Amino acid sequence: MYMAKQKIVYIAEAFGGGVLTYLSELASGLVSNYDISILYGRRAQTPNNLSDYFPSQVHLYEIKNFTRELNPYKDFCAYLELKSHLKKINPDIVHLNSSKAGALGRLIKYQKNQKIFYTPHGYSFLMDNQSTVKSRLYLGIEKILGQLPAYTIAVGKEEYKQSLRVTRKSTYINNGVDTHLIDGITPNDSIDSDYIVTVGRIDTQKNPKFFNQLALSCPQRKFLWIGDGPLKSELVAPNIKISGWMSHNQVLAILKQTQIFLLLSRWEGLPISLLEAMYCRNLCIVSNVVGNRDVIKNGETGIIVDDLENLLRAINKGIIEFKNIIDKAENEILYEYNLKQMIIKYQHEYEN
User: What's this model's pTM, rounded to 2 decimal places?
Assistant: First the structure.
């Protein structure tokens, strides 16, 4: 007897960068077992060829009123759009991703038999570019929303620890990367392997001011920022090249060519670009924040730095000195942060 597939709806306002990669790979891994729909918001980094990132069986619906910023009118309209789509689809499982979708999605009243999950991808109250009052406000909102019937799945152990501040209904599943996909990518040999590279939106989170300070301190080195964003004007050092947004495969082709990857973020969830850079055998040098600390064991699988002096010291050592670290990092991804394990664990959570 034919059994209809259970329906999953993923909701994401921040549909670009790591969240897009995460949902693309998760949906692709689960689509044979579930009927999957995605309700998403469009950002500057959302690719125009979005359907190419998903199997043809995945249904994509744009939420026109999703905005990054707080906007009571737009947020209310987005809430109504979400309710309308969810009523039509009538899913068995709803999985909310990032703060805006997590807030609006948890305010919706669901049927008793529907399972609701929430993944923060970096809590808003951890953002260090805002006042203490605002951080406490976001923390308070998460505590209130944490009382509602949604189960939190953090993307790593550090985010899980933060989730326990706002809810006891929580677990974590490490982000994973598609190692088979990366194995099939040809390195982009038109890129000089000496470039020191980073990936992401050029905004406060990714700390372009610090990246620029580093470049000015190393005029003999070349730096590449893959991405774009509102703080592009802060990258004024003449030895920085800004690529603009690229497809996922184009980014991987560059990471397979370069040797040093930086992630100097002021806060993180669990960055997929870092996992990919580790598997692509880059020496990964990262800031000392939640998310980065999940992945990098300092001196074993990468380097954690707190200031410019330590960053310069790491960069100026010969790459050959870090061979053991690079080997361990690659193996860490292969056995601890691979996509196959991630998909199995999500399916277990959805079904149990």
Answer: 0.86
Are residues 183 and 127 both part of a single domain?
A: no
Residue 207 and residue 65 share a domain: no
Are 186 and 233 members of one domain?
yes
**231 and 171 in one domain?**
no
3-state SS of the chain is CCCCCEEEEEEECCCCHHHHHHHHHHHHHHCCCEEEEEEECCCCCCCCCHHHHCCCCCEEEECCCCCCCCCHHHHHHHHHHHHHHHHHHCCCEEEEECHHHHHHHHHCCCCCCCEEEEECCCCHHHCCCCCHHHHHHHHHHHHHHCCCCCEEEECCHHHHHHHCCCCCCEEECCCCECHHHHHCCCCCCCCCCCCEEEECCCCHHHCHHHHHHHHHHCCCCCEEEEECCCCHHHCCCCCEEEEECCCHHHHHHHHCCCCEEEECCCCCCCCHHHHHHHHCCCEEEEECCCCHHHHCCECCCEEEECCHHHHHHHHHCCHHHHHHHHHHHHHHHHHHCEHHHHHHHHHHHHHC
Local confidence pLDDT in tens for the 352 residues of the chain = 567 899 999 999 988 888 999 999 999 999 999 999 999 999 888 888 899 999 999 999 999 999 988 899 999 999 999 999 999 999 999 999 998 999 999 999 999 999 999 999 988 888 877 788 888 988 999 999 999 989 999 999 989 999 999 999 999 999 999 999 999 999 999 999 999 999 999 999 999 999 999 999 999 999 999 999 999 999 999 999 999 999 999 999 999 999 999 999 998 988 999 999 999 999 999 999 988 998 999 999 999 999 999 999 999 887 888 999 999 999 999 999 999 999 999 999 999 8
